[in-house]
Design a protein that fits this description.
The longest helix is centred in the C-terminal third of the chain and has 9 residues. The chain starts with 7 loop residues before the first strand and ends with a helix. The strands form two sheets. Strands 1-2-3-9-8-5 form a six-stranded antiparallel sheet. A three-stranded antiparallel sheet has the order 4-6-7. It is α+β, with helices and mostly antiparallel strands. The chain contains four helices and nine strands; from the N terminus they run βββαβββββααβα.
């Protein structure tokens, strides 16, 4: 499992892209997608919703369980990935590409976001 070096990671297994014009993309990691199993439903925050770093903002349901989705940053949701709503399996097949979840205009970040190497060590336990 390889985690893209340009992303930052939360201990809740979400990834965050670098901001472009103040907007970052959020998804879950390959580690989280594998742990969940086959994702069958995605409840994402709505465009315009305010999300808070470290707090639940949606859910991912798999054939094994339902897991909360946490925002790695605070801000306003600017876009959701309708493709994931329509086909939740994208979270499993392409967690870092087509399986991204939402975009957020960042107003505040979690202090403890990890680099790819730090996240790999954390996920390995």
């Amino acid at each position: 499992m390889s985690n893209p070096q340009q992303l930052r990671y939360s201990k809740e297994h979400e990834w965050l892209s670098a901001a472009e014009d103040g907007v970052s993309t959020v998804g879950i990691t390959e580690f989280a997608a594998n742990a969940l199993g086959d994702v069958v439903f995605a409840q994402l925050p709505a465009v315009g919703d305010d999300v808070t770093a470290g707090e639940s903002c949606g859910e991912l349901e798999s054939t094994k369980s339902v897991s909360d989705l946490y925002s790695p940053v605070s801000g306003e949701v600017t876009e959701i990935n309708q493709n994931v709503v329509d086909d939740p399996s994208l979270v499993n097949s392409a967690p870092f590409e087509g399986g991204w979840l939402f975009k957020v205009r960042v107003t505040g970040e979690q202090d403890e976001l990890l680099t790819a190497d730090e996240y790999a060590a954390f996920a390995a336990g």
